[in-house]
Amino acid sequence: MDLESLLAAAQDLLAVPSTADRPADLHRALDLVLGFVGPGFTVERFESGGKPSALVHRHAERPRFRIILNAHLDVVPAAPHQFRPRRDGTRLYARGAQDMKVSALVQAQVFRELAGGLPYPLALQLVTDEEVGGRDGTLHQLEQGVIGDFVVIGEQSRLRVVTDSKGMVTAGLRAVGRGAHGAYPWLGDNALLKLHRTVDNLLAAYPVATEEVWRTTVNLARIETPNEARNQVPALAEAWLDIRFPPQDTDLNGRTVQEVTAHLATFCEPGVTPVVHHVDPPHHADRDRPEVRRLQRAAWDQGYRAGFLRKHGAADGRFYYRRGVDAVIFGVGGDGQHGPEEYVDTTTVAPYYRALREFLLDPCGVPAVP
Q: pLDDT by residue (tens digit) across 254-312?
């Protein structure tokens, strides 16, 4: 692999503001990577909810794949300057550099080099909606019959193997009160205050984490009201909640939307109603599976300690986990994910490429890490 050529292609991809609200740029990012893979492969295109995705392989008829390389090409919003990639020493700064466009290009490079000669079916799965839930990309493809035995997701990990991720609840709180003149609050029922008390109840049970902890966390993402007058008691208010939970939280793990709604209702003040949009389970892959050990060994052979990791964020592996398919996260290094100084550590790109090649050439045949 020519590292400089790959990083030049990466800068072209990183310059595309492929956020959920820019469908043309989602298509442009997808087409860039498909062009990078090149001709000679079957390209299946999908679209759901306005989000395009693709599956690349070498078969006339889609088989059950032995291994699927999964990558997302969408990013979270950022200031315009973050879509002007810049290099500073061994860092390449841009939105999506760490999460996860560079890993995606490495996966595409390895796929185009090896897929035609491997003795098993390999697929490259490219999606553009992971940052907004993954249901129109990976999940949609699974619902259309795409399936495999083992999945490598190129999210950032600095060549460590992620076998566990938290589950996720996407929910809201809706408060209904009674409007009144702000000078006469006793004549009204302030929906915002009821909502704040409910949030306080919830955060008393799930305190805001001040350090890394493997427990349930609740992120209060937004509080809003349609009220537009300073001298009016708000009659309506709403909050957004992002809840992440480990398998040990039996109040959430394995529960239905209705059961999670009932659990959240126990924290609600009168007049406040929880609305649960999605409940996604934690993700787990068997650490003793031969492919997991082989991937770990491939990273070890590149000089990386290749330990196991647990991720607090959800990834598309949860959709495979529901179907009994082991999926792991394995990607490049960097820092600043979703932040103003996101970057990829370019010293991890070539080792990641070599480790992926080593793994795919013999996914089960080498002893585990010493």
A: 899 999 999 999 999 999 999 999 999 898 999 999 999 999 999 999 999 878 989 89
Report the alpha-carbon distance of residue 294 to residue 297 in Å, rounded. 5
Q: Which of 245, 280, 315 is the C-terminal boundary of a domain? A: 280
User: Which residue range is the domain that position 43 belongs to?
Assistant: 3-165+283-361
Enter the pTM of the model. Answer: 0.88
The burial class, CB within 10 Å (0-12 / 13-18 / 19+), for 253 is middle
Q: Both 161 and 177 in a single domain?
A: no
Rounded distance, CA 205 to CA 200, Å?
9
Q: Do 28 and 36 form a contact (C-beta atoms < 8 A)?
A: no
Distance CA 284, CA 325 (A): 10
Give the HSE-up count for residue 115: Cα atoms under 13 Å, Cβ half-sphere.
25
Question: Do 14 and 107 fall within a single domain?
Answer: yes
Compute the distance between CA of residue 195 and CA of residue 173 in angstroms, rounded to an integer. 7
Q: Domain containing 230 — which CATH number?
A: 3.30.70.360
For the chain, what is the domain count?
Answer: 2
Q: What are the backbone angles phi and psi of residue 346, rounded to the nearest 5°? A: -70, -15
Are 280 and 314 within 8 A, CB to CB?
A: yes
For 315-360, the DSSP string reads -THHHHHTTT-EEEE----EE-TTSTT-EEEGGGHHHHHHHHHHHH
Same domain, 55 and 178: no
How do residues 230-250 score in pLDDT, each as one tens digit? 999 999 999 999 999 998 899
Which of 280, 314, 336 is the C-terminal boundary of a domain? Answer: 280
Percentage of the chain modeled with pLDDT above 90: 92
